[in-house]
Each structure stands twice: as structure tokens, then as C-alpha cells.
Amino acid sequence: MATRNLSLEIDRNSGMPLYIQIKHQIGSLISAQIWENGFKLPTERKLAQILGVSRNTISAAYRELQAEGLLLSLQGKGTFVAGEQIERGKVGRKGRLLKVIDLALEEAAELGFSPDDFLTLATTRALERKKQLEIIDVAFIGSCIEQACYFKHELATETGLKISPFLLQEIENDPITAKENLKLFDLIVTTLFDIDKLQALIHLPDIPVLGIALELELETVVQIARLPRNSTLALICSTNSFISTVKQSLCKAGIDGLDLRSTTSTEEQLTRIITQSNAIAVSINRITEALRWAQKGMQAEIIKLKYRVDHGSLNMLRCYLADLRNRI
């Protein structure tokens, strides 16, 4: 089909918004250097026709990739893989923030405040915002323990939130008790794949439920994409559902030609798979085991399966948090 010529495919039954699917795949193609620096992308209208989606869907994906510095749009010329512009984009964001600070300093001076006064007030305000976040209780509900670990690690670093992880199976086993426990939280977060199932199990009209997308870190995608074709890659995780998630992520990133072997076990089966593999991809909660394998002289390359919250999902979460802060 036509989409294969661009290495882009969409799955209308996945539950993931189409613009996020398209954004993920383009980002992965760029990271794996399949789409190289300077590569010209189809126009929004053209790609929308090829994929059978609305132009607004393509526009949303392109905008987020431009915000992250992966794409560069030139008036009258088109949209390109940014290349060196990525680092400039990061500097640009910092530069814009500095301009905001400079303007605030000028306004403060006109109101009769010194730079020291401004520093004191700005620090106080920032600490107040941080404390407001610390009293917001967030529950994350995932279908496997790996998702809970990634989400808690990512958001704790990004926002300083207090996050309590739950497994969807716990909700399924005892929805009544789970509903009582979840009443104590200000916000419930789950994945886009699990949100419908969760809302069917519990109904809490006073507590917002947000669905987010978790995507493989670009560093992880690149490491796996660089493995020689026909290499054997072992996926070492704790749950089969997470192994399926990883395989789907690799497929969407256009990574094929690898002999994928997977296991959730320990001991004998694990040792056999590792010794037969050229590289192993390990979930965060099993990194300690991987280090022990390395100490035993294992030759296979160790790749950390690092996930992060999708940029668009993170923006939505920030909006929810801002609303919650205003209610406190």
C-alpha cells in the first residue's frame, strides 16, 4: 500500500489517537536515521490523502514534532527533518524563557522592585507552586508493573508529583474496594489502551480520568535500530503484556529483520535465551539482574527499555494539574 513507501501505517483499532500514532512513527524514523537530516516530508494535505486521515490530524503531528525540534517548517518551501536545528530548538526554548524573565524584570523595575526583590518573590512563588503539586494525589493504573514504574519515574522527575501505582488486574479483581481507595485521589491516570476498560469497571464522576500514551525513548529506538539485521534480540520483562507493548513499539518504529525472543521467567530459561542472543532489551525493574549478567562476563549488548510520556499527553497532564492547582 502507499503508506509503506513512507514507512508509515496507522491502526484505527488501537485506541491511540491517530495524530499520536503518526507523530510517534515519524519521530522514530528520524531517530533511527531512516529519514535523514534535510529529508523533505510530504505536505500536510498530501500525507493526509495517503494515510486517509484529516489534514488537521497531520497538522497536529507536525506541530508537536516542530515543538520538539525534530521538524523544521520553512515558509513556501515545506517541512524538513531538522538535523542541526534540534539543538538550536532547545536553545530557542531557553532563549524564549529568558526573554520572559527579562520582561518581568523590567516590569518589576518600573514598579520599584530591585533585582533582589524580584529574585525573592520569584523563588517564593516557585516554591508555592511546587508545594501545590506535592499535595495533589495522583493514581496511575497500568496493565503491567513496568508501565507503573515508567510512569512514576517519569512524572516524579518531571513534576514532583506524588504518584501511587495500581495494576488494572487489582481493579478487575475487586472493583468495589478499588473504587473506595481511588476516591482519595485528585486525578486518575491510565494508558490510552486501558482507559475504556477502567471506566467500565469504576465510575467516579468527581475525579477526572486522563488517558496518556507511553512511547519508547528515542535513545532506545536508535540502539535497537542499529543492531545488524538478523541479530537475535532477547526481551527480558516481567509481564507478557509489556512484551507485547514493546513489540508493537518496535513495529511502529519500522524496526524489523530481528529475531525476537522473549521471556518473563528467571533462572534456567532466562540463562538459555541470554546466551543465545546478540543483545538483550531489559525493562527498568529488571536492570539489576542485567548488571549481574554483565558481571558474569555476558557478551550480549544490554539495552535499557526506557519509555517516556508522550509530549502531547504531558501537555494535557499539565493542563489538568493547572486546573487542580486553581481549585486548591
Task: Summarize the structure in words.
By secondary structure, the chain is of the alpha/beta class. The chain has helices at 2-5, 18-31, 44-51, 55-67, 85-110, 115-134, 145-159, 168-173, 175-182, 195-201, 218-225, 240-252, 267-275, 287-295, 311-327, and strands at residues 71-74, 78-81, 137-142, 162-167, 187-191, 209-212, 214-216, 232-236, 259-263, 279-283, 301-305, 307-309. A four-stranded parallel beta sheet has the order 4-3-5-6, with helices on both faces. β8 (232-236), α12 (240-252) and β9 form a beta-alpha-beta unit. α2 crosses α4 and α3 (44-51) crosses α4 (55-67). The longest helix has 26 residues, at 85-110. The radius of gyration is 22 Å and the shape is globular. The protein starts with a helix and ends with a helix.
Proportion of residues in extended strands = 15-25%
Please state the overall shape, judged from the principal axes of the Cα atoms: globular
Distance from N terminus to C terminus (CA atoms, Å) equals 52 Å
Task: Pick out the low-confidence regions.
Answer: 1-5, 85-91
- Alpha plus pi helix count: 15
- Quickly give the structural class: alpha/beta
Tell me the major beta sheet. 4 strands, parallel
What is the rounded Rg? 22 Å
Strand arrangement in the largest pleated sheet: 4-3-5-6
The overall strand count is: 12
Indicate the percent of residues in helices: 40-55%
Q: What's the SSE pattern? A: HHHHEEHHEHEHHEHEEHEHEHEHEEH
Overall residue-averaged pLDDT value: 79
